[in-house]
Amino acid sequence: MGKYFGTDGFRGEANKTLTAEHAYKIGRFLGWYYQHKDDAEKCKVVIGKDTRRSSYMFEYALVAGLTASGADAYLLHVTTTPSVSYVTRTEDFDCGIMISASHNPYYDNGIKLLNSNGEKMDEETILKIEEYLDGVVPEAPYAERDRIGCTVDYAAGRNRYIGYLISLATRSYRDKKVGLDCANGSAWMIAKSVFDALGAKTYVINNQPDGLNINTNCGSTHIEGLQKYVVENGLDVGFAFDGDADRCLCVDEKGNLVDGDAIMYIYGCYMKERGKLFGNKVVTTVMSNFGLYKAFDAAGIEYEKTAVGDKYVYENMVQNGYRLGGEQSGHIIFKKYATTGDGILTAIKMMEVMLEKKRTLSELAAPFHVYPQVLENVRVTDKATVRGDADVQNVVDEVARELGDDGRILVRESGTEPLIRVMVEAGDMETCHKHVDRVVQLIVDKGYRV
Fold first, then answer.
1. How far apart are CA 305 and CA 279, in angstroms?
2. In whole angstroms, what is the distance from residue 102 CA to residue 247 CA?
């Protein structure tokens, strides 16, 4: 990760750590870079945004920077991250930009950059952008006269994406009562349009964005609202999205959460049954629940484990040709259909399994049992020193040996804060607490805790 850009773009509090000037300079660099890199006549960039108040500010700043450097900016307006990815990779765009801080509160925002294949931009290009932001490289020249870029209203691209999603459904959703929690974010119009077109009786909550209520007690980070709504209205299933709709969590007809791990289990089994699970593997991250691996073992499905971040999941899938991967949080990648996590696509895929197998979501998820988990975040003086401490490593190894095949321990550094995360999964909460406390106490005794 760089100085500004992490695994999911440049993210920070609007006009505090991420400013309109940052956005303008990113636009200035990209507009110049892609024309210079490919000696192109004109650079074309497509831009989408979520519903945060600051997203409009960043959109205008990016457009000003791009057009000042001679690039043409195509605006999808309020839309989802996966729609920007889809339009970028299916049309002749040099790159795509999504303005969103995903599941973060409204006062945060972010700038996500995608290459011409709709994938997260490579580290080499990101580093060049950071050097430009820091003034390490000269200012990009301004375009003049007829070389100045133009701005194009491109809502048609968003509509094509909606049509694409509709085309992926294998059956009609007629008479199915489906709940959608749009998190007052990017999915607020798109998700309902898709499910209505497919014949569902669609029940929508949190679809009145005001620029300040995105992710506020709603969406995939506050699933309890949808759980209650599904039960009270007798719905067949519910789907909750985050602010930019690249993740999805499900609620079964009984009001139970079906998270990203359970989604991967359900669809992994479905693919295996049909002979579609390439390499017989699903790509997960180290934060997937131990119960997922137990369920995969029972189903005869193998798995990979990557670092936390859908970026790393996708990289593993590309390198090895795997078709299904994701995170517990609901970033699920169906590589045949998308290059990013896509919440609405995930919902469509869950509907596919339910309809094709004629089973409820609770029945499909029944073999997957979530292991009890305890996670404690310890604020420390220096993350790397703690992780490299021999005594800490030894106690972690001892816990792992004691847990054996009945649990696991994971100690890792936070990617964004001065925290060490200590997580244990085991057959009961008492065992989890005992081992977490043991590791945390050692960190405290050695004077690392702040």
1. 15
2. 9
**Residue 304, Cβ density class (10 Å: 0-12 exposed, 13-18 middle, ≥19 buried):** middle
220 is a catalytic site residue? no
> Residues 203-214: what's their mean pLDDT?
98
CA atoms of 144 and 151, how far apart (whole Å): 15
Side-chain half-sphere exposure of 288, counting CA atoms within 13 A:
33
Residue 125 has pLDDT above 80, yes or no: yes
**C-alpha closest to that of 262 among 283, 282, 296, 292:** 292
Mean pLDDT of the chain, nearest integer: 96
Q: What are the tens digits of pLDDT across the range 425-436?
A: 999 999 999 999
Contacts of residue 45, Cβ cutoff 8 Å, sequence gap at least 6: 30, 31, 34, 66, 71, 72, 73, 74, 93, 94, 95, 96, 97
Collapsed DSSP state (helix, strand, coil) of residue 130: helix
Query: Please, which residues bridge with residue 46 across strands?
Result: 74, 96
β-bridge mates for residue 49, sequence order: 78, 99
Instruction: From residue 377, give the alpha-carbon distance in Å to each of 101, 121, 422.
Output: 22, 30, 6
Q: How far is CA 412 from the centre of its chain?
A: 20
Query: pLDDT, tens digit, for every residue of 265-283?
Result: 999 999 999 999 999 999 9
What does each C-alpha distance from 410 to 214, 313, 397, 426 come to in angstroms? 32, 18, 10, 12
pTM of the model: 0.93
> CB within 8 A of 392, min separation 6: which ones?
386, 411, 439, 442, 443, 446
pLDDT tens-digit readout, 369-396: 999 999 999 999 999 999 999 999 999 9
DSSP bridge pairs for 99: 49, 111
**Cα 250 to Cα 240: distance, rounded to the nearest angstrom:** 6
Reported confidence tier of residue 36, pLDDT bands at 50, 70, 90: confident
**Amino acid (one-letter) located at 85:** S
Question: Residues 55, 83, 85, 102: which is the catalytic one?
Answer: 102
Of 406, 390, 402, residue with least CA distance to 442: 390
Burial category of 14 from C-beta neighbours within 10 Å (exposed 0-12, middle 13-18, buried 19 and up): buried
Contacts of 150 (CB under 8 A, 6+ apart): 67, 72, 73
Residue whose token pair is 């490299």: 388
**CA separation for the pair 213, 61 (Å, rounded):** 23
C-alpha distance from residue 295 to each of 25, 354, 404 (Å): 48, 19, 17
Task: Tell me the β-bridge partners of 9.
Answer: 6
Percentage of residues of the chain with pLDDT beyond 70:
99
